[in-house]
Amino acid sequence: MAEETFDFADFSLQGESASSTRPTGDYPSIDEVINKPIWCTGFSDSVETENGKRTLVKFKWELEGAETAFWTSSKKLLAVLQNPSIRFPFHTIIKVVFVRDMAGFEFRSAKEVVSQDDIDALNMYLIKKRSYMKQRR
Question: What is the pTM of this model?
Answer without folding.
Answer: 0.81
